[in-house]
């Protein structure tokens, strides 16, 4: 299919830029985290705000800068942490912001200082990583610029995508943890930069007599959409991040093509599409050329993929400066059919590394095959990996390893492969029962590990869900995708070893497998988990420890470990 090639004039061969320059700056800020009444979708709710803002403030840095963020917990009764999604935290694993893994939650009234180098240029974001606080709106954009940017464009916009429930996160957590489980349902609204519409529609005038009225906004309405104002015949970079709790999304800009140039902070070989699929935890940059009729306005639409859409589209408008129409003249783009998985796979398989990126090592030293299943544990509904549902301990793994506190978690590692060779991934599990555990996978420093994520049918019915998996502290190469059950010794031959993309988040498609490869080059303890908030809450994750001997020599701030057994150890330190 012929496509326009205008982007060739905009893109010079890209090389990786990730270094600490001599002219690096310090970005320092104090953030107060508290609950606020808000109107995210034109209906009043409660959000987690930072310094009174929802979403939180955007961090704008240059690769090599040092970020110092003093987080003040002004919540009355619960802890809080913040994860810097996409930042690898070389040398500062305690700043990763994963409660129970790298630090203790920040207690109410207390302050914790995150200090780390933003090592990697690209589009990133941050979010809460304690309980389900991301679902409550604790998130914001984190933009890291390259001092040697090779993309050429005239302006840029940030699009932070999220989903929104009217039920509080505390009610959601209780429902998911109940026996029997009470499913929280689909989100009531989708938000673009924290703004959506639940009880009205911007496009209702195309459907007179429909269920919803046309939205009318007042000045300073918190749910009023942010319009993207553009000049004709310019090139704009759209930085897109998905911090959804559950929804997989599709984004389209009416009348405009999108050139995908970045994924998860890594440049990719440019390719042109009419819309993009984006899963929770993923980020993209796309280039958009404003070459449509400048007298019109155009919809930007975001809809649900991968789940039966019971949530209406989120909408905003691309507005040419000289446009005279008060509204777009056509209905919004229709989101592709929610269960057209082949279309989604086609998009994923178009993503290749840009020139100049390192190829993966030819062979791996270790392999994990992680079977994703939905199970029961004493009548609780759980998600499990190789029949273990993860329970994160109260003492952070990082502190337990640092101080040799062997009773803080299960010392036995989970199985590297699921032992039931006859497991039928196409049917509900014959034995629905699972176990709980807090064991971790421990790797020596400097080896190559392959991870095969294997999907399967859920507990009931004929259903296999999409799972976006995110790794902390690393990027991995996405070696390939496949249908059905992974065949060791056979499917490895289909891997892309020439130009696989580097990512930190990847989707696992229904009834299929996804293969990854990474190098254990970052001493620390790192979460690897499904980025769907309810799934992680129900146990869908594993933990990697790397370079344990180096962790034992780390100078970890005491305030990161002031809970559980590490608290007791620190209190008794120096006593006879």
UniProtKB/TrEMBL annotation:
Keywords: Copper, Disulfide bond, Glycoprotein, Metal-binding, Oxidoreductase, Repeat, Secreted, Signal. PANTHER family: L-ASCORBATE OXIDASE, MULTI-COPPER OXIDASE. Dimer. It holds the Pfam family Cu-oxidase_3. Residues 33-148, 157-322, 426-547 form the Plastocyanin-like domain. Its EC number is 1.10.3.3. It is found in: Secreted. SUPFAM superfamilies: Cupredoxins (SSF49503). This is L-ascorbate oxidase. Gene3D superfamilies: Cupredoxins - blue copper proteins. Its cofactor is Cu cation. Belongs to the multicopper oxidase family. Its main location: secreted. The keyword Nucleotide-binding does not apply. InterPro entries: Cu-oxidase-like_N (IPR011707), Cu-oxidase_2nd (IPR001117), Cu-oxidase_C (IPR011706), Cu-oxidase_fam (IPR045087), Cu_oxidase_CS (IPR033138), Cu_oxidase_Cu_BS (IPR002355), Cupredoxin (IPR008972), CuRO_3_AAO (IPR034267). The keyword Repeat applies. The gene is LOC104736189. It is an enzyme of class 1 (oxidoreductase). It catalyses: 4 L-ascorbate + O2 = 4 monodehydro-L-ascorbate radical + 2 H2O. Residues 1-24 form the signal peptide.
């Amino acid at each position: 299919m012929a496509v326009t090639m205008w982007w060739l004039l905009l893109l010079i061969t890209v090389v990786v830029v990730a270094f600490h320059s001599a002219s690096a700056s310090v970005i320092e800020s104090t953030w107060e985290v508290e609950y606020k009444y808000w109107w995210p979708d034109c209906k009043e709710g409660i959000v987690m705000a930072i310094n009174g803002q929802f979403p939180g403030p955007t961090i704008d840095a240059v690769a090599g800068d040092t970020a110092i963020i003093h987080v003040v917990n002004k919540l009355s009764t619960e802890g809080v942490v913040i994860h810097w999604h996409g930042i690898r935290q070389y040398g500062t694993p305690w700043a990763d912001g994963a409660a129970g893994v790298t630090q203790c939650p920040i207690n109410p009234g207390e302050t914790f200082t995150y200090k780390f180098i933003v090592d990697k240029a690209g589009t990133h974001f941050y979010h809460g990583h304690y309980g389900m606080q991301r679902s409550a709106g604790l998130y914001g954009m984190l933009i890291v610029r390259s001092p040697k940017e090779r993309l050429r464009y005239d302006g840029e916009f940030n699009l932070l995508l999220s989903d929104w429930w009217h039920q509080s996160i505390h009610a959601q957590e209780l429902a998911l943890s109940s026996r029997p489980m009470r499913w929280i349902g689909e989100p009531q609204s989708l938000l673009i930069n924290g703004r959506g519409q639940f009880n009205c529609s911007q496009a209702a005038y195309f459907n007179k007599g429909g269920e919803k009225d046309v939205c009318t906004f007042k000045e300073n309405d918190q749910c009023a959409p942010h319009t993207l104002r553009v000049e004709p015949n310019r090139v704009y970079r759209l930085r897109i991040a998905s911090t959804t709790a559950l929804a997989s999304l599709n984004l389209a800009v009416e009348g405009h093509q999108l050139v995908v140039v970045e994924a998860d902070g890594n440049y990719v070989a440019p390719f042109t599409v009419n819309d993009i699929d984006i899963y929770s935890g993923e980020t993209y940059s796309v280039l958009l050329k404003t070459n449509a009729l400048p007298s019109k306005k155009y919809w930007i639409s975001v809809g649900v993929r991968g789940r039966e859409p019971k949530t209406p589209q989120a909408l905003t408008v691309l507005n040419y400066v000289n446009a005279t129409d008060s509204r777009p003249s056509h209905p919004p783009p229709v989101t592709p059919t929610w269960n057209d998985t082949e279309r989604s796979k086609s998009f994923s398989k178009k993503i290749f590394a840009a020139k100049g990126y390192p190829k993966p090592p030819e062979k791996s030293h270790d392999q994990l095959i992680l079977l994703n299943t939905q199970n029961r544990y004493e009548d609780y509904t759980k998600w499990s990996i190789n029949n273990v549902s993860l329970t994160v301990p109260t003492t952070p793994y990082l502190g337990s390893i640092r101080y040799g506190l062997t009773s803080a978690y299960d010392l036995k590692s989970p199985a590297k492969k699921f032992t039931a060779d006859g497991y039928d991934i196409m049917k509900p599990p014959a034995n629905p029962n699972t176990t709980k555990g807090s064991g971790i996978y421990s790797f020596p420093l400097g080896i190559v590990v392959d991870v095969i994520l294997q999907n399967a049918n859920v507990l009931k019915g004929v259903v296999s869900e999409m799972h976006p998996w995110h790794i902390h502290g690393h990027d991995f190469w996405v070696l390939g995708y496949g249908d059905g059950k992974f065949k060791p010794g056979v499917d490895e031959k289909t891997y892309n070893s020439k130009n696989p993309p580097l990512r930190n988040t990847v989707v696992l498609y229904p009834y299929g497998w996804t293969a990854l490869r990474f190098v254990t080059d970052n001493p620390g303890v790192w979460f690897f988990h499904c980025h769907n908030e309810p799934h992680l809450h129900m146990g869908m994750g594993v933990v990697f420890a790397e370079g344990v001997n180096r962790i034992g020599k780390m100078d970890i701030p005491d305030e990161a470990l002031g809970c559980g057994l590490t608290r007791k150890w620190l209190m008794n330190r120096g006593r006879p």
